[in-house]
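Support request, please re-run this one:
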Amino acid sequence: MINHDFIKEKQDLTYLEWDKARESSGTGGSFLKAYELVDGKKIYYKLSAYDPINGITGRECFNELIVSRFLDILNVRHLNYQLIHGDVLLSGKTYDTFLCASADFKEKGDRKITLEDVYALEKEDNETILSFCERMGWLSYIYQMIVIDFLIINRDRHGANIEIIDHNGHKEPAPFFDHGLSLIFSCHDEQSINDFDPMADLPVQSYFGSRSLFTNLKLIPADQLPVFRRLDPSDKDYLFQDLYPYLPAAYIEKIWQILFERWSYYESLRNRQ
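Re-run finished. Output below.
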């Protein structure tokens, strides 16, 4: 497969106006977002972690692209991200950086609402979030999300990171999105990358589960564990195509180790059932 999701030639994006996005507890810096209209369609932009002293220091935008490609491989419906090399202007200073862009997944006339808001408005008495999703016909979507979050070590699946699209009264889950705070986004030096345990059970935010990704897998009945397209060693080339000059080799190798080892663990779990 050939990727067309990385614009390496530097773009002038200094005209974009950035707003601070919702922060998650335990994450450092601010995550800035912007948008523009292109041919009547909204294009959203995100930056990696930024602070006024150190500048843009994170690799969350690279993670968005890698996870987007990973979900391509698994054949999971998701928001496509494009990585862009560009100049951006923040607090009067120009930064040469990488950012990610995505198109609005809403069509004209659609309305989007977070799952936590839909649940608050429409749940029945004593109805759990999972039983509510079952009644709405969204349970297989949630089970897929639980597994994907386990595979990529997603730390940030709060209720606003799950959206529902309302098509004139017909509601359906949006494509999976927002995976920057996953993998080894918190590792900023080679020692921390090398020390990272690919099978770590780090504390996470999960709207419909616990703070343990392993425990959350147990929310899925054994006979309903999602089946995905197989992850093969040859997929590594597609995942990291064109990224080697921009990421440390240790970073790429650790991400591949995480994805392959956790995929293998999940497949062994599913095949035991």
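The domain at 111-272 is CATH 1.10.1070.20 (Phosphatidylinositol 3-kinase Catalytic Subunit; Chain A, Domain 5). The two ends are 33 Å apart (CA to CA).
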